[in-house]
Amino acid sequence: MKNITNIQGTFQLHNGVQMPYLGLGVYQSNNDQEVVDAVQWALEAGYRHVDTASIYKNEEGVGRAMRNSSTPREDIFVVSKVWNNDQGYESTLKAFDESLKKLQLEYLDLYLIHWPVQGIYKETWSALEKLYKEKRVRAIGVSNFMQHHLEDLMKTASIVPMVNQMEFHPYLVQQSLIDFCNQHQIQYEAWSPFMQGKIFNTAVLDDLAKKYNKSVAHIILRWNLQKGVITIPKSSNQERIISNSDVFDFELSIDDIQFIDALDSNQRIGPDPDNFNF
User: Fold this and answer.
1) Residues designated as active site
2) What backbone phi and psi angles, to 5 degrees, belong to 28?
């Protein structure tokens, strides 16, 4: 198991960059005071990783929160993603510039291809490689790429993706994909670790929460981290943002990790990476 010690702890990407393993997701946070407050609260609570995307339409707010914060820019790991309509070589370079402009930053820490748009994601990846070689981004990766997408991309890529951000929660573990990523030193990352809140409507983890005297959210996030998966729970609620970071004073047993793994039923709440039309 990787060493998981505190909110500013990191996992090392294959190019040596340290990526904080707990971050704040800002999907569906409005590009006004809502996202500004969420990011500022997270930074105040000790988070050092913020995950946005051009399609979230809140990059300006994320940038504003960072500028208003006393946390130095170089201490914050900022992630954004190129949206499907912007994929392709030149259009990706343009989209990257647009994201930087909205964030008012000089570089990104991680830039991802948001979805594997068939027939075009290799061109998009070439653009990301160019940005990486020009040191405009510290790491590059993908999101929602299944094993066959990764294998296809790696046939022509000169750089193996550093990260694969996937829907990941107790009902969608995809262990064989995690194993493939680990084998190729592609850091696995979870989006929607709480199934957009649906996991809280089940009682399946209540006993574990009682056993460790923690919340179900804490159990899930700790499970993510102990599996070596970076996680970015989304919230715009100050209490929950602070509470989500309270996962460093306990450790799940191997049996309890295996119990959660066994809940896997290949149940998606988001789109299927093999069958999406946007």
Assistant:
1) 56
2) 70, 5
Provide CATH code, domain 10-261. 3.20.20.100
92 close to 127: Cβ distance less than 8 angstroms: yes
**Please, are residues 77 and 23 in contact by the beta-carbon 8 Å criterion?**
yes
Categorize the per-residue pLDDT at 70 as very low, low, confident or very high, splitting at 50, 70 and 90. Answer: very high
Distance CA 158, CA 243 (A): 41
Rounded to whole angstroms, the Cα distance separating 262 from 191 reads 19
* Residue boundaries of the structural domains of the chain: 10-261
Burial track 167-201 (b if 16+ CB lie within 10 A, e otherwise): bbbbbbbbeebbebbeeeebbbbbbbbbbeeebee
Rounded to 5°, angle at Cα 255 from 202 and 231: 60
Q: Write out the two tokens for 134.
A: 């020009």
* pTM listed for this prediction: 0.97
Structure confidence at residue 1 as a pLDDT band (50, 70, 90): low
HEC readout, 4-49: CCCCCCEEECCCCCEEECECEECCCCCCCHHHHHHHHHHHHHCCCE
pLDDT digits (tens, 9 = 90+) for 171-193: 999 999 999 999 999 999 999 99
Helix (H, G, I), strand (E, B) or coil at 158: coil
- Distance between CA 134 and CA 146 in Å, rounded? 28
User: What percent of the chain is predicted at pLDDT more than 70?
Assistant: 100
Digit-coded pLDDT (tens) for 18-53: 999 999 999 987 777 899 999 999 999 999 999 999
In the chain, the DSSP E strands lie at 10-12, 18-20, 24-25, 49-51, 77-82, 110-113, 140-143, 163-167, 187-191, 230-231
